[in-house]
Amino acid sequence: MSDLNKLGLAEARDALRKGDVTSVELTEACLGAIEGAGALNAFVHKTPELALEQAKAADARLKGSEEAPAMCGLPLGIKDLFCTKGVPSQAASRILEGFLPQYESTVTQKLFGAGAVMLGKLNMDEFAMGSSNETSTYGDVTSPWRRAGDDAALTPGGSSGGSAAAVAADLCLAATGTDTGGSIRQPAAFTGTVGIKPTYGRCSRWGIVAFASSLDQAGPMTKSVRDAAIMLGTMAGHDPKDSTSADLAVPDFEAMLTGDIKGKKIGIPREYRMDGTPAEIEKLWSDGAAMLRDAGAEIVDISLPHTKYALPAYYVIAPAEASSNLARYDGVRYGHRAKLAVGDGITEMYEKTRAEGFGAEVQRRVMVGTYVLSAGFYDAYYNRARKVRTLIKKDFEDAFAAGVDAILTPATPSAAFGLGEMADTDPVKMYLNDVFTVTVNLAGLPGISVPTGLDAQGLPLGLQLIGRPWEEGDLLNTAYALEQAAGFVAKPGKWW
Amino acid sequence: MSIDESTAARVAKLARIRVEEDALPALAAEFNTILGFIEQLNEVDVEGVEPMTSVTPMRLKRRRDEVTDGNQQDKVLANAPDAREGFFAVPKVVE
């Protein structure tokens, strides 16, 4: 078999089972692809020796048993936000330079315990704060996609930009991502890949560098909906080390992919029709609704009246939690410590360390968070935002109570933009990238981005499906039906 | 509500991030852009609405109050920029 790195998880798993291929072969193919893809800047810490060691162990395990787990022997990229034992885990920040975790995150432990192979760590926005992968201490990730007839470097989206680029460019079979406001779904949409953010509490957050603890969730970024179902099944599950992880059984998500969505009620929220949305996105959306209708679903108009307030509420709550979570980077226990001048005391050490260690966007959000939590403003900003969050969640609860099974929306307000294109605009413009995804984090719901078309310039566009809490299986099945109907097969032409 | 340079300086101090004097006007302007965006929340009627504390209604699990690990001093200190004699070392805190 050639081009083994181009396989998805399901195909590779089946080929491993049949003995057509070994994990070592799969892993070597990916390592070769990574070596040739320096221009994308997706992999920032490579672990080829560890990968081959894990691959050999997986091959032995596959040989000895019919019962090896689904992920056994499959090579993955891991977002730099996950702590991986003995392997640099910096959250793409200078402040964690040199940090070598002494422990393994629960999600990566589950994956590696099931026999998955780690090829290395993937670039991202610093502390997952960004929508274009331009805030990383490692530099920008360049998308493997380009506009037709144009060499301009494009963003893969963010914050899981390295994960999206690596999957789209076939540097790995799949990757882990995390999503606080859209960081899995937006880059998936920008790169023609599939990304699911599960229900809050489905995956353990233990060992994942915290950004906004009430919003953060890990999820898979893959080449197909089936692959997402397989990988999520391994990542999910209760963890006593994360008290917010749900003690619920994890169903066999893959077994739920029947493609039968007859009688399902799909909501189209009118508030997601926003001024200035490009006609191509509008068309993608109505085409998607038509595909689901043709597959037997009932399409209904719904209202989520507080949608407009989701982004402003998010930009209070997420920075507030970040300012608290990032207080731990103090130059004492791990990572960077600034060189001090004679006479500098502990306050100077904190202030200089954090000024040197955090990039501009992280500093901005930590300070906004500090402000909205400070005496006198806590009620006006933070408590008000938490009340609005209650109303946003209630909007969804009302829709589901009225019988809606899933909600269909665009994943992003545009196709991928050029690197540097947003540099001179104000930060709020960049925040608007998450306008369709952030509501889902605030409501704690599962959401999946599925590629369904290309724009006039040949760039991928995605649709988002939002499901009921804990019903990822049903959501994945609806996404599977959409994927089948859309038949998206485009891949970026190799220029790197 | 508009943020002036002295407020920006106070916030930077509270966040323990050193911001040079000449960077304060730009920082204050950025805060004002972001807070201007956030001000939209004032349009929402939140009378009688409970602030969200947990997105999923769940009882946090309890566990027995017992020691489950320990004796990992070397691991705890392994990443410290400055560790001496089994402790984290920091600049002088008290005169």
From TrEMBL, chain A:
Chain ranges of the Amidase domain: 25-476
Catalysed conversion reaction: L-glutamyl-tRNA(Gln) + L-glutamine + ATP + H2O = L-glutaminyl-tRNA(Gln) + L-glutamate + ADP + phosphate + H(+)
GO molecular function, one term: glutaminyl-tRNA synthase (glutamine-hydrolyzing) activity
Biological processes annotated in GO: translation
Coiled coil in keyword set: no
Cellular-component GO terms for this entry: glutamyl-tRNA(Gln) amidotransferase complex
Xref: NCBIfam families: gatA
Protein's UniProt name: Glutamyl-tRNA(Gln) amidotransferase subunit A
Species name: Pseudodonghicola xiamenensis
From TrEMBL, chain B:
HAMAP family registered for this protein in UniProt: GatC (MF_00122)
EC number per UniProt: 6.3.5.-
Keyword field contains ATP-binding: yes
The reaction(s) this protein catalyses: L-glutamyl-tRNA(Gln) + L-glutamine + ATP + H2O = L-glutaminyl-tRNA(Gln) + L-glutamate + ADP + phosphate + H(+); L-aspartyl-tRNA(Asn) + L-glutamine + ATP + H2O = L-asparaginyl-tRNA(Asn) + L-glutamate + ADP + phosphate + 2 H(+)
Cited function: Allows the formation of correctly charged Asn-tRNA(Asn) or Gln-tRNA(Gln) through the transamidation of misacylated Asp-tRNA(Asn) or Glu-tRNA(Gln) in organisms which lack either or both of asparaginyl-tRNA or glutaminyl-tRNA synthetases. The reaction takes place in the presence of glutamine and ATP through an activated phospho-Asp-tRNA(Asn) or phospho-Glu-tRNA(Gln).
GO molecular function, one term: ATP binding
Secretion signal span: none
Gene Ontology BP terms: glutaminyl-tRNAGln biosynthesis via transamidation; regulation of translational fidelity; translation
Protein name: Aspartyl/glutamyl-tRNA(Asn/Gln) amidotransferase subunit C
Oligomer status and interactors: Heterotrimer of A, B and C subunits.
Superkingdom of source: Bacteria
